[in-house]
Every structure is written in structure tokens, then in C-alpha cells.
Write a structure and sequence with these properties.
The complex is a heterodimer of chains A (112) and B (113).
Chain A lengths: L3 E4 L2 E5 L4 E7 L4 E9 L6 E7 L4 E4 L2 E6 L4 E6 L8 E9 L2 E6 L3 E6 L1
Parallel strand pairs in A: 2-11
Antiparallel strand pairs in A: 1-3, 3-8, 4-5, 4-9, 6-7, 7-8, 9-10, 9-11
Chain B lengths: L4 E3 L2 E4 L5 E6 L6 E8 L3 E9 L2 E5 L6 E5 L5 E5 L8 E8 L8 E2 L3 E5 L1
Parallel strand pairs in B: 2-11
Antiparallel strand pairs in B: 1-3, 3-8, 4-5, 4-9, 5-6, 7-8, 9-10, 9-11
The chains are: A mainly beta (112), B mainly beta (113).
């Protein structure tokens, strides 16, 4: 089955800096890659997603890049703010099996 | 608010007991997914239903079962509970079995004492 690895497990940045979180996946048939933000005790909230026919997608301060050949995708957050502090999860799914396989999460701490 | 609702919010019970968690998907969504989130296992897929039928199974224990009703709400039944079943249980829904966005409910926190 699919395996998603996520790095780093923790990330501390200064306010205004950029943050990058990386994920690799094992199943070459995976074609959908969402990123979720989860605050303590709350639901995972989708912040951005990308499909395999696109190499990059941007939404204001958040961007995701996908390298299908290398089977990895990354989340980029620019101009970080204290409210960006949370746990971020990458995930992958494939056609015919829509269930998401999640990475282990990255705890992002933005220091004011 | 994602539009997905889950009840109850919290559940405290004893080992060996049985509980039922309920999920109502977003209006119009046919697919329901159940995920378990524990401290040491992260977010794990349990089971998926589409329009009343089981569509995919993940790491779901035999003590656990689920169903989706004609009105599309879903229930996750956990029986012979063990301490290790303590976790957050999330339900998510999407509009079809295509590669669609999954929206998560607020979760049910289960504590087994």
C-alpha cells in the first residue's frame, strides 16, 4: 500500500521567515496530494491541494510543489505569522482508492 | 465549519464496553470516511462508505464496524474496548469516489478507562 513520509517532524521559524515541509510517497499511482493544518484538539483543515497533472499551485502565502518523477511534494509557507503555528499533515490518495494516507505530521512553531 | 457533524464530542467509557459514534456528511456528499488519530499512530484510515456501500477498508480492527444509512449518515461501532482504543475519531466526507477534497468533522474524543 501507499506510504507517505514527512519531514521534518518539528520546525521552528521566526515570524516573517519561510517554512518548508517535505513529503515523499511510494505509490506511483497516487494522483491527489492535499495538505491539512490541525490545531490542538481541532479537525484537520484543508489548506491547499494539488493533483498530479499540475506541478505547482499557489494560494496567497501558501504554495505546494509536486515532483512526480521523484515522488515528492512540498509545502511552502512564506511570511510566516504566529497564527500559522500548528501541526501540518501531507497526504496522498490514488484513483480507485480515495482514502487518504497521511504523513506523520510536522509541528510548526512560529516565534514572534 | 466544514459542514460535517459528529456526535458525541466526548465519550468516556470503560474497557470491554461498546460505543457508537455518529457522523453526518456535508449536504450532497455521498462518501464518508472514518479516521483514527492517536498520539503514536497519527491519522489512520479505518473505512470508507459510498452511498450506503462499503468501498474501502484500512487498518480497522475486527472489533470495529461501520455502516452508512439511506440518509447518508454513518455510524462507527467500537466494541470490546481496550485502553489503546482511546483516540480522536474523525469522520470526513467527499462528494464522490473521484479524487475529491475530503472535509473533516470536529471529531469524537474517546477515552477508555
Amino acid at each position: 500500500g501507499e506510504n507517505v513520509e514527512q519531514h521534518p517532524s518539528t520546525l521552528s521559524v521566526q515570524e516573517g521567515d519561510s517554512a518548508v515541509i517535505k513529503c515523499t510517497y511510494s505509490d506511483s499511482a497516487s494522483n491527489y496530494f492535499p495538505w491539512y493544518k490541525q490545531e490542538l484538539g481541532k479537525r484537520p483543515q484543508l489548506i491547499i491541494d494539488i493533483r498530479s497533472n499540475v506541478g505547482e499551485k499557489k494560494d496567497q502565502r501558501i504554495a505546494v510543489t509536486l515532483n512526480k518523477t521523484a515522488k515528492h511534494f512540498s509545502l511552502h509557507i512564506t511570511e510566516t505569522q504566529p497564527e500559522d503555528s500548528a501541526v501540518y499533515f501531507c497526504a496522498a490518495s490514488r484513483a480507485g482508492r480515495r482514502a487518504l494516507t497521511f504523513g506523520s505530521g510536522t509541528r510548526l512553531q512560529v516565534q514572534p | 465549519d466544514s459542514g460535517v457533524t459528529q456526535t458525541p464530542k466526548h465519550l468516556i467509557t470503560a474497557t470491554g464496553q461498546r460505543v457508537t459514534l455518529r457522523c453526518s456528511p456535508r449536504s450532497g456528499d455521498l462518501s464518508v470516511y472514518w479516521y483514527q488519530q492517536s498520539l503514536d499512530q497519527g491519522l489512520q484510515f479505518l473505512i470508507q462508505y459510498y452511498n450506503g456501500e462499503e468501498r474501502a477498508k484500512g487498518n480497522i480492527l475486527e472489533r470495529f464496524s461501520a455502516q452508512q444509512f439511506p440518509d447518508l449518515h454513518s455510524e462507527l461501532n467500537l466494541s470490546s474496548l481496550e485502553l489503546g482504543d482511546s483516540a480522536l475519531y474523525f469522520c470526513a466526507s467527499s462528494s464522490s469516489t473521484g479524487t475529491d477534497t475530503q472535509y473533516f468533522g470536529p471529531g469524537t474524543r474517546l477515552t477508555v478507562l
